[in-house]
Write a structure and sequence with these properties.
The complex is a heterodimer of chains A (338) and B (268). Chain A is mainly α and 338 residues long. In chain A, α5 runs antiparallel to α6, α5 runs parallel beside α7 and α12 crosses α13. The longest helix of chain A is centred in the last third of the chain and has 27 residues. The model of chain A has no long low-confidence stretch (mean pLDDT 91). With 268 residues, chain B is α/β, with parallel strands linked by helices. Chain B is 31% helix and 23% strand. Chain B has nine helices and ten strands. A six-stranded mixed beta sheet of chain B has the order 6-7-8-3-9-10, with helices on both faces. In chain B, β1 and β2 form a beta hairpin. The longest helix of chain B is centred in the C-terminal third of the chain and has 16 residues. The chains are: A mainly alpha (338), B alpha/beta (268). At the A-B interface, α1, α9 and α10 of A face α2 of B.
């Protein structure tokens, strides 16, 4: 038992790997051997392609959430910023819009996407500014900006969804699919995986990453070691904003629309993915790869249970159990002794 | 007891004063640390020990007075400033990040990057180099009883953590190490190891300021004992010239030592 504890302490992403593998084995077994529901479709290339495509929105946002949570923070406004950003992108790129910013409409789509990413970065850095400048808890700040950014979106753009056929192709670019063998991937999936690679490197391979971990682990020790804790924290929210901006672009491509009502539960889903992935809500511990696994677990559960013909409620129930189990495991492995 | 040596102090503070509102932390306090010695700072709670140490380590800026390192006047604006002048501090709270490994902690805040384009453009850390250097410096201090340099610090015992913190302070070419209550949280055996570590550091030519409440330990390792009382220096004595009871008497004001009986110059 203690060996397991030490092992998990060293490699916190082991538990999501085990969970994911178990889920896949169970679903394959139920489908191929027991013939439950439509689960025999579970290992078809089409299903696997869909599962992977389905990860892009939560998966990309969860990168930003992971970096924030590593500093012992939390971002409840992640979904609101993403929606604000994608509404900027879509409303700027179309010619006819019912929004309150019609004078901005009809821009070059590349510019529109760039503005959207800048907006997301600025919005998230506002979170960072409030947290760092006024020493406010991230939970409270982002709870407030969740409302503020949601309201801002509605005030600026009204509640109008812009459909894919209305905006230029460039906006939906990341939804473009391509075949590799029997599998279909999208550009958005590639961009997400690239972001995972880049930020895994930034977190583990650079001094900035070490400082992010140190600030989340023990801010007092970090400060005494000569790290500018406030600057690191602020940089984390800026970086998170940039990732959220990319996620907004990916979302437009994935849904082929920009809607202010997209994914109301997205905040909680990103936190769920991070926690299931073995990152500690108390900061300083966890790996980005765990978050990717956590996202996969959510999506695989989703597909598996619905293919088995079970009600959506069972999937919500299973996620709830997983979250509590993940936090319990985190509490346990943090007590590790030499 | 007046010494004949003319050694210059490595760290010197003259007439340091610091107030917090109406509370006086330091009132025209003097301090000297000579090269290669262990100078203990003792005093009752509220005597200004912490304030003095924080001024010397750059954590506080004194209201008045001057500080010198190797004869040069210094005005530390931050702990990094002090560090740049070779003054390192090991805090009572240890100031290690528990989830980071030993090497990462040793290099925290001054990580080294790889050479070439990997380091300059991609900001890649030289993990291998830092681990090798960390192993070397822990070996040199004889504290490498840990299994692996990539072990998270939280899996170490209190004494091992203290050793990492001290090793951190002793690395990077520092001349002065300030230790704030280094044995406060440790058991008897671990305390003994840390005291040995302090002697080893001194034998390698480092100068050490030791803040401690533990009289037997102070008398065991200190070359000189700076007794702080009411925000100023009450006396500087040696373990040879005075007893523990004398020092406690000076701390509480029950005894005063005339200047000619004090040890204001170097003993080593």
């Amino acid at each position: 038992m203690q060996k397991v504890q030490t092992l998990l302490h060293r490699y916190p992403w082991l538990s999501p790997i085990v969970v994911l593998a178990l889920l896949i084995v169970i679903f394959v077994f139920l489908g191929q051997v027991m013939g439950v529901g439509d689960l025999d479709n579970f290992i078809l290339p089409g299903t696997i392609s869909l599962v992977l495509q389905q990860t892009v929105i939560v998966g990309t946002l969860a990168i930003a959430q992971t970096i924030v949570i590593l500093t012992a923070g939390i971002d409840l406004s992640i979904g609101a910023i993403m929606v604000l950003s994608q509404m900027f992108m879509a409303n700027l790129a179309v010619y006819a819009t019912a929004s309150n910013v019609t004078f901005l409409a009809g821009q070059n789509p590349v510019l529109a996407v760039a503005v959207g990413i800048v907006v997301a970065t600025l919005a998230s850095s506002l979170n960072g500014f409030l947290i760092v400048r006024f020493n406010l808890p991230p939970f409270i700040v982002t709870l407030g900006t969740l409302s503020i950014f949601t309201a801002l979106t509605l005030i600026l753009f009204k509640a109008r969804t812009i459909q894919g056929k209305e905006f230029p192709d460039f906006l939906g670019l990341l939804g473009t699919g391509f075949q590799i063998g029997p599998f279909t991937f999208t550009l958005g999936l590639l961009v997400m995986l690239a972001l995972y690679a880049i930020f895994s490197y930034a977190l583990r391979g650079t001094a900035w990453g070490t400082h992010v971990y140190a600030v989340g682990d023990d801010p007092a020790a970090a400060e005494l070691s000569g790290i500018n804790v406030r600057r690191v924290l602020f940089s984390v929210y800026c970086v998170a904003g940039f990732i959220i901006g990319i996620a907004a672009w990916i979302t437009i491509g994935r849904l082929d629309a920009a809607s202010p009502n997209v994914a109301p539960d997205i905040n909680l889903e990103t936190i769920t993915a991070v926690v299931i992935g073995g990152t500690s809500l108390f900061g300083g511990r966890g790996r980005l790869i765990g978050t990717l696994l956590g996202t996969l677990i959510i999506v695989v559960l989703d597909f598996g249970l619905s293919l088995a013909g079970l009600d959506q409620a069972y999937r919500v129930l299973a996620i709830g159990v997983l979250v509590i189990a993940a936090v319990a495991v985190d509490q346990w492995i943090r007590k590790v002794k030499a | 007891m007046s010494a004949t040596t003319t050694t210059q102090p490595l760290v010197q503070a003259t007439d340091l004063s610091k107030s917090f509102g109406r509370v006086v932390g330091l009132a025209s306090c003097q301090f000297e640390l000579y090269p290669g010695e262990v100078c203990a700072v003792v005093g009752d709670n509220g005597a200004g020990k912490s304030t003095l140490i924080k001024c010397l380590s750059g954590a506080l800026t004194p209201d008045a007075g001057e500080m010198f390192v190797s004869g040069d006047r210094v005005a530390f604006k931050s702990t990094n400033d002090a560090r740049a002048h070779g003054v390192e501090t090991v805090y009572q709270t240890l100031a290690v990040a528990p989830a980071l490994d030993i090497a990462e902690n040793l290099y925290l805040g001054r990580e080294e990057r790889k050479k070439g384009i990997l380091g300059t453009v991609f900001r890649s850390l030289d993990k291998k180099g830092m681990r090798a250097e960390a192993t070397r410096s822990l070996n040199e201090l004889g504290v490498l009883t840990v299994q692996s340099i990539t072990q998270p610090v939280e899996t170490l015992s209190g004494g091992q953590r203290q050793a990492v913190a001290v090793a951190r302070a002793g690395a990077f070419g520092s001349q002065v190490v300030i230790l704030d209550e280094p044995t406060a949280a440790l058991g008897v055996n671990e305390s003994a190891r840390v005291l040995q570590l302090i002697r080893d550091l001194r034998d390698r030519g480092m100068s050490i300021i030791l803040i401690s409440h533990n009289m037997p330990q102070v008398f065991e390792v200190a070359d000189r004992i700076h007794v702080q009382r009411l925000g100023r220096r009450a006396a500087v004595v040696t373990p040879q010239s005075h007893t523990m009871n004398d020092v406690v008497a000076i701390m509480t004001g029950a005894m005063t030592v005339p200047e000619e009986e004090q040890q204001l110059t170097a003993v080593r």
